[in-house]
Amino acid sequence: MIIVTVNDRLGTKAQIPCLASDPVKVFKAMVAARIGRPAHEIMLKRQGERPFKDQLTLEDYGVSNGVQLDLELDTGD
Amino acid sequence: MDLHIEDSNKIRVAMGLKPLPVPGAAPSNAGPVFKDPKQDDDSDDEPASTLETRTAESYDNWMRLQKEADAKAKRDAQKAAIKKARDQALRFRQLEGKGLADEGEDVDTKTWLLQSKKRQKKIEKARKLEEEMAEREREAQAAVAYTAADLKGVKVGHELDEFVDGEEQILVLKDADIIGNDDGEDELEAITLKEKENLKQKLDSKKRKRVYDPNDDEEGQKSILAQYDEEIEGKKRKVFTLDGQGRTVEEAEMAEKESTKSKKGMTFSLDLLKDDNPISDYMDISNIKVRKPKKKSKSTRKKAIENDDIFPVPEVTPPKPIIEEGAMDVDTSKPAPARPRKTVFDQSFVDDDDLQAKIAMQRRQALKNRKKMRPEDLARQLREEDSASPDVMQTTEDADEEPGLVLDETTEFVANLQQKPAERERRKSSQPANDARSMAGSPAADNGDIEMAQSYNEVEDEDERMERPTRSVSADVTTTGLEEEESLTKGLGGALAMLRKRGILKEPASDLNAFYRDRQRFLAEKAKAESSAEIMARQQRERDRNSGKLDQMTPREREDMARKNNNLRDVIEARKTAELFSKEYRPNVTLNYVDEHGRQMNQKEAFKQLSHQFHGKGSGKQKTEKHLAKIEAEKRKLAAPTLDSSQTGMSNAQGVQAKKHRQAGVRLQ
Questions:
Q1: β-sheet bridge partners, residue A44
Q2: Strands of B171-173's sheet in order across
């Protein structure tokens, strides 16, 4: 189990326990449950990189314990 | 945290994923069951060999890390707390001890006073002890101290002269050779002096001194080939040894030697030549006795001059006895307070009282004499002056004699104006005599019959006629004060004179005539010599013919002889002519170049013209025009009358004239 920090740089910061093997989609659902925003509106990315894709797992993005991900609003395009 | 996990587990389950492992809860049956790591110690499969096992371990890892972090934080907090407590304790400990107010430990005033004596004693004791200690220390130091006596027999590797007075030098032990053939003695040297020495040596070596210096005037102790001394015997070292008493051993030895050593040479004083120095041509000042004038009179006189409103009366110096002279000298020797400001001016003038007195007396005498002059004399004198004054000619003549007066046209003009009436008067008075003289000299007087025929009236007319030319002549001279200009109407002579006056025609050089005459004489002489030679030749021929010498000869012989004679004669003649030439002939050569306008050219112009001719190419248009303009101007200048004032007014006329005559002068207005 790893704990990943999600931060939107606007005052919202959440620590989410998960498994490294979780797909990004599931992780988004957990984030959504925590911050109260629908999952399709959440966009996750490492700082300065392209957004995470739902089909891939956190492992694939090299996310490990204590990593911080940026949270942005996904407008769908 | 646990709550989150449970929540997220719910979500995960809903999403169809396996739940996260919950730390507190017992491992769920659903998931794979892991063996206890401790039990598995002996098993050969590694704890984290598979992904699954590693994942299972992750929670434990996390927990451990968490714990460690917690423990660390706790420890830090504890440490900080301890440190804080210690600091506080330290701070309070500094404040411990007795304060000023706490001292005396409850001693009341009376006891304190009683104890004061004891306290004083205690203080005294402490001080004494301290002093004793200091003394002992000093003594110990003195015992250890290193004095000049300790330096006895130590060598110093410098010359004594190198140590300048008032300059502190620190001497150190010199580096000794380890293997060396040193005698093992200590030697001192000053580092600064050593450096200086080295530098000097280096500079000397750079100088490239010659081996033999003829100017080097050292006394005879020089050895042969002294320049190799250093190489053979090694460097001579300048060393002196301290003897521990403020002197050097060498010094003492030297003093001893000096006293014993007998002097080699003879001493010879050069002062012998000195005492007959040349005697001065001037008298020695100390021999001259000057009679000092009395100071009192001087001071009063000076005061009078300074006041300036009083007429300076020469004060009569009281007669002084000659015996007093010595006393006077004494008087003058001490400073005189009566005249604080003595100027050179005063001294030079007033010093000579005797002379002043004499001069004053002479003046008085002269004044007396003049007063004696009688009125008749004065009248006569005045009359004489009167008669003298109107005669301007005389005055001008007087003036003429004086050096420095320049007579020019203007002064002449003024003189003539004044002269006129006087002259006329004189002429009137001297008319009869004049007439008589003119009668005697005139052509009219020669043929007397004509005059006889004339009537009285005509005689009168004649008289007038005689007067007229004189008048006209005088008018000729005196109308303007300036000369009339010559004109061409008076013939060739007039023209010549005019040209000369204007400076156009130069005065012919006087020796030009002489040259001409010489040349003529030379030519005549030459001709005479030639003719005489010819005559002689003819005579000789005649003689030969008459003597009958020719008759005996054949015609051929005759011809030969004639030729010989002719040759001989020619030789003689040539020699004579040469003699004549060398004696008399002085050729006078002048090169005159005349240009196409008929002007004389000077050397430069002539060269230019020749050059132009040679190259077939003259000056350009502009230059030619300039040249022509110059010639034109020259012509105009020559043609213009001398006194022409049309160009630049009156002032120019004289300037132009002066220029023509080549005179320098300034016109006085």
A1: A71
A2: B171-173, B187-190, B155-156, B240-241
Separation in Å, CA B251 to CA B141, B240, B254, B259: 32, 9, 5, 13
pLDDT digits 0-9 by tens, B306-348? 444 444 444 444 444 444 444 444 444 444 444 444 444 444 4
Whole-number mean pLDDT of chain B?
A: 72
Instruction: Report the distance separating Cα B156 and Cα B174, nearest Å.
Output: 9
User: What's the CATH class of domain A2-73?
Assistant: alpha beta
Domain locations along chain B: 2-86, 510-614
State the average pLDDT over residues B102-117: 78
Q: Is the Cβ of A67 closer than 8 Å to some Cβ of chain B?
A: no
Q: Between chains, do A16 and B8 touch, taking CB under 8 Å as contact?
A: yes
Q: Is A16 near chain B, with CB under 8 Å?
A: yes
| B55 in A contact zone (CB under 8 Å) | yes
- Phi, psi (degrees; rounded to nearest 5) at B172: -125, 165
Quickly tell me which residue has 């919950």 as its tokens. Answer: B22
Residue B402 has pLDDT above 70, yes or no: no
Q: What is the CA radius of gyration of chain A?
A: 11
Using CA atoms, how far apart are residues B81 and B78, in angstroms rounded to an integer? Answer: 5
Give the Cα-Cα-Cα angle B556, B558, B561 (nearest 5 degrees).
Answer: 110
Q: Can you tell me the mean pLDDT for B647-657?
A: 57
AA letter at A72: E
